[in-house]
Predict the 3D structure of the following.
Amino acid sequence: MIERIKVQDWTGKIIGFIELDTSTGNKQIKDFSGKIKGKYNAKLDITTDFYGRQIAKGDQLMMTLNM
């Protein structure tokens, strides 16, 4: 099951969404327009950017939202 979590800035404006696959723990982050900005693979414990390049170890999805 996919759970969708909204991401807001300090003023309350929605700037994106995190989609969490509760069965696997994998996540992906999308900007407000729906473009995928990054993905987190829970099994490998890595975060990748839009192009599939590994950019961090661990869950660092918020970092990709502004890329």
